[in-house]
Every structure is written in C-alpha cells, then in structure tokens.
Amino acid sequence: MKVAICFSIIFFFSLVLSGCQLDASDHSLSATDPVRVVRISWDTPENRENGESLYVYEIEGYEIKYRKMTDQNYQYQTLRASDYGGLIEEAEVSVAGRGTYEFAVAVFDADGLYSLYSDAMTVTLD
C-alpha cells in the first residue's frame, strides 16, 4: 500500500501586485513519495488594473499558473467562485518531484477580463 504524504507550504499572494510573503513553517516531507501539495493563499483584490473598484460579486474566479523552473511551459489551474460557493482566497496545487517551482495568480471577472498575474513566487521542495 502506497502512503501519500504531502509537503505543504503556505504562500501569500497579493493580486494587486504588492507584498508577497512566504511562510514555510507548516510542512512535512517523505522522501518515498514525490507528490507535493503547495497551498497558496491571496488577498481578494479591491481594484482592477485600471484603478476602478472591483467588487467581490464581480469576481468569477482565479487562475493559477505554475511550473517547475526547469520546465519551459506553465501548467494552469482555474478556480471558479461558483464551484466554491463564493469567495476563494486559497488553493492547493499538486506538483510532482523535488525542485524549484514558480507560482503566480490572476483574477478574472464575469466578463472574462483577466488581471495581470501577480509577481511570481518561487519555492524549493527538497
């Protein structure tokens, strides 16, 4: 029987592109299982890229892009507010293997308009 043990890291993104923080105090690791779960969270943006107000009810969801730094292509995870009963401020992303990973988050509204991605944050999983 294979036991899955996940590596969790709390990641804070600010979708208004300011002040990212990383807290790596909450983690466990198994050398026998390459699957890791990175938990990221962010503050709900209050403004659009053009400075206009963005209200919570206008947010359709978020898109997380991530990749292992040795990979050229990104993978994407889309989170729709309707699937989560409303407000979303965190997600878990499963990654395989050790290495350095990069994560960024964008918000999109009901009209399909996307923000720029947040500044990318990196984390190294040993």
UniProtKB/TrEMBL annotation:
Residues 1-18 form the signal peptide. Keywords: Signal. It comes from the Bacteria. Coiled coil: none annotated. The keyword ATP-binding does not apply. It comes from Gynuella sunshinyii YC6258. The keyword Signal applies. This is Fibronectin type-III domain-containing protein.
